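Task card 7
Instruction: Convert sequence to structure tokens.
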Amino acid sequence: MDPLGSFLVRAALAGVGVALAAAPLGCVVAWRRMAFFGDATAHAAILGVAGALTLAVAPVWGALLAALAMGAGVAWLSERGWAADTALAVLSHGALAVGLVAISLVGVRVDPEAVLLGDVLAVSRGDLAVIWGGAAVVGALLWWRWDRILVATLGDDLARASGVDPDRERAALTLALAVVIAVGIEVVGALLIAALMVVPAAAARPWAGTPERMVAVAMGIGATAALAGLWGSWAWDVPTGPAMVCAATGAFAASAAWDRLRG
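Output:
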């Protein structure tokens, strides 16, 4: 019996794979206060999906290139005097609008709801390989540069004094963020992939004595939320991607309540 023959098994593995890749990156994003950057990058990925469909290539490659282009665009505008939040807002909403228009114009029939909210129940074996391969790449990148990323997170001046190039670490973080968004769009969609990064990290914060512990707890919360959301989707016939984020949000609410109770 083929364990991957069931679409529910494939969906569970896809959700867990994205959650495990997104959680540690979400911790770094939260520490650096870059949550809006994650949203902007995900919105840009919609335009990349439209371009990939037009060129008849895998959507994941279009999403990856568009996400990287968003990071480069924000850096370029910031270097020329634009406030980072203004640049993010303009590029984020502009890319979202242009991407949705482009999807409606491509010759291939595409369901915009699947791009925005994901369609994890349609994940194939090939999609699983891409998702877990992307998760492995992100994990290896963070493992390799973990100490440098932590130092750069504390401040650019401290990083330079420690021999760390903060611009290089930002580039590595942008690359990891682009990979997670590219492989996660099919699971929770472009509108919610940033939430699957940030919400488990926020839920893990009250339980974290060290950065590494926060990452471990966030990964556990993210994987549990993915499975709980899949179960809720099956039980109540609701969209799976939003159900996963709802489960993660419930974990955050419980964590925040417990943290308040214990003072």
